[in-house]
Amino acid sequence: MLLWSLLGLATFAGRATHAESVPPFRILIHPENPLASLNKDFVIDVFLKRTTRWHDGETAHPVDQRADAAVRQSFSDNVLRRSVSAIKRYWQQRIFSGRDLPPPELDGDEAVVGYVLKHRGAIGYVSSSAKIGRAKAVPVQ
Amino acid sequence: MTDSRRSVLDSLRARLLLIVGSAALALLVTLIGSAWIAAQQTRDLRDVEQRLIPKLELGPKLETEFDHLHQAMQDAVAAQDAPALSGTVSKRNHLFELIAAARGVLDPSDAAVLRFTIHDYYQAAEDVSRRLIAGETGEGVVERIASMQAQQARVEALIKRTTGLSRG
User: Fold this and answer.
1) Any residues with CB less than 8 A from the CB of A64 and at least 6 apart, and which?
2) What residues in B contact A102, CB-CB < 8 Å?
3) Which residues contact B158 (CB under 8 A, 6 or more apart)?
């Protein structure tokens, strides 16, 4: 019994270490976007629309996934450092005060990849296992 | 009395009469002028009291009520509460009542345009709110939000324009 418990604990610890090292999502940008990596604060600003342009002047088009998608929760917690519900409240406030438009929420990885390939200034995120085609996956530092 | 002396006296009398008459006429013109100016000032003062002050007070009232309207919609969406969203119609109606009560203050055509613009905003905002409560997503919702925000900006600009003092 003790042996089984120790084995289970070891497996859980192994998984946790793996989850920390490999984020369960990838951030995608358009293939013609020259950036090779992104600054985390810049990504936050783009997704909250505090920044509306890329460094080269191109308009930024962030795209979200549905609020109930696991990848959205993971991205929100790890990159935006806020829960999905906090982000929803943020956008509701901005929508009804007439100040800003939220990023569109798309259904699933495939739709996000399609959106990123369609808009040169797009930035989105998909689960690690998603097929990203020509879209460029970039690390966030 | 000689003829020459009489004619000098007549001339003097005529001059005196002319001076007195001119002075009386000047006094009359002054009195009438000041009475006209006083009446004009009274009219202007009444206009300020009855129309311009209420008009100035109406602007912030409408802006506050309009803020309450979109705040109520935001709260209904945050709470995912469709009945609360239906209840926001009372806030829209309150805005209509304020506009109707300001009949003597607002130009009738301005009041009608303001009412229609608020009505259009309400329809757009209610539609967006219902979609958000239903969990609708995608680019279509964002387009509707943009349209609602454009209506909202129109209402805000119209409130400022119709309740400002630059218009008659």
Assistant:
1) A47, A72, A102, A103, A104, A105, A106, A124
2) 142, 145
3) B113, B114, B117
Interface of B with A in 66-105 (CB under 8 A): 70-71, 73-74, 77-78
Structure tokens belonging to residue B136: 């609708």
Per DSSP, the residues of B83-111 read HHHHHTHHHHHHHHHHHHHTTTTS-HHHH
Check CB contact under 8 Å for B78 and A92.
Answer: yes
Rounded Cα gap, residues B35 and B31, in angstroms: 6
- Written as six digits, the tokens of B78 are 């945050």
Q: What is the pLDDT of residues A63-102, one digit of tens each?
A: 999 999 999 999 999 999 999 999 999 999 999 999 899 9
ipTM of the complex: 0.80
| Contact check, Cβ <8 Å, A107/B138 | yes
CATH of span A24-138: 3.40.190.10
The domain B3-163 is placed in CATH, from the list 1.20.120, 2.60.40, 1.10.10, 3.30.420, at 1.20.120
Model pTM score: 0.78
User: Do A92 and B70 lie within an 8 Å CB cutoff?
Assistant: no
Residues of chain A found within 8 Å of residue B148, distances taken between Cβ atoms: 95
pLDDT, tens digit, 9 for 90 and up, residues B33-78: 999 999 999 998 888 777 788 888 899 999 999 999 999 999 999 9
Sequence spans of domains, chain B:
3-163
